[in-house]
Amino acid sequence: MKAVRYHEYGTADVLRYEDVEKPVPGPGEVLIRVEACGVNHFDIDLRAGVSRWPLPLPHQLGVEFAGTVDAVGEGVEHLAVGDGVWPQHEVECLTCRYCRAGQPNLCLDAKMMSVQFPGGYAEYVLAPARATHLLPDGVTAEMAAAGQVAFATAWHMIVTRGRLQPGQTVVVQSAGSGIGHGAIQIAALNGARVIATAGAEHKLQTARELGASETINYNEESIAERVLEMTDGEGADLFIEHVGGDLFMDSLRALRKDGRLVTCGGHGGETPPIDLVELFRHEWQVIGSRIGTPAEMILTMKLMGEGKLKPHVHAALPLSEAPEAHRIIEGRKQTGKVVLVP
Fold it and tell me: DSSP characters for 212-278?
């Protein structure tokens, strides 16, 4: 079968489209014929060797993917050959203190697709059957591959960690990204007033189409100043942030007193400067957020099937064009998601 792997860390040019042995499912496993695989910035971090995850080389990327069951291993009874499925991008252990407490996304012994398991950049991929789910009615493999990480992560940030209430004002940073375009829809679905930021007008236009009532071009104006103008000097209740860097402090200043900033990334700079005096005087809350829980993944998949959440696919490229998919992400050219189609 064909797969895309890299044998050394580096630029997109290290990705190789090559022949590898087709895997065989063992007990408790399913073999999935991949029909679509989402491309995430996490893939770029892994390929470049800056993810802080130790990886064996050669390595096969692809956190989120979906397709059809090609074969099942011993003991698998709830799935059958021909079923349309999506595997969780992270598989919890079920036994640690966090799993027992209902926080499986903080599992102490979780295994992740594209890290501990070979990912979806291949024609066929193995997945643990207990963490593989049927595609809901109305959800295609491409939708599932484009929506699993973006929507579940955004739901966890906004609803679970951000504690959004109807009628509150939410600012969504980097609206053209996967997380950003998902966060706009989820905030609007939960009754919020949504202000979206991006660095290009075409991304802001898409943000308005997805549910943002107001937009800010952060390359041309201060986020904090514009948000304060839009909220009569009060500030936003919640800020969804995953950029970091020079924009981080400006994002905090866009909050009202006792406002909440939830962050899940820092591709613009992982150690931004923070004015601690401003932080404590305003009682701003800076909240870390990881991936969504399995329950949140299942919920957002259901909402996609009902048409309430719609992943925006910027480009669907053949698996052999994985290097170009990475260049699109690195160049910040996309609005929404890029997917690979084996």
Answer: -SEEEETTTS-HHHHHHHHTTTS-EEEEEE---TTHHHHHHTTEEEEEEEEE---TT-SS----HHH
* CA 158 from centre of chain: 13
Tracing tokens 């040019």 back to the chain, one arrives at 13
Domain assignments of the chain as residue spans, ordered by start:
2-148+292-341, 163-288
- What three-state secondary structure class fits 87? strand
Residue-level pLDDT at 188: 98
Quickly name the fold that domain 2-148+292-341 has.
Quinone Oxidoreductase; Chain A, domain 1 (3.90.180)
Cα 310 to Cα 38, 186, 257: the distances in Å are 15, 10, 33
Domains 2-148+292-341 and 163-288 share a fold: no
Backbone φ, ψ for residue 53 (5° rounding): -110, 125
Low-confidence ranges of the chain (pLDDT < 50): none
Tokens of 130: 């207990």
CB of 92 closer than 8 Å to CB of 145: no
Angle between helices 294-305 and 141-155 (to 10 degrees): 130
If you classify domain 163-288 with CATH, what class do you get?
alpha beta
pLDDT in tens, 104-147: 999 999 999 999 999 999 999 999 999 999 999 999 999 999 99
pTM: 0.95
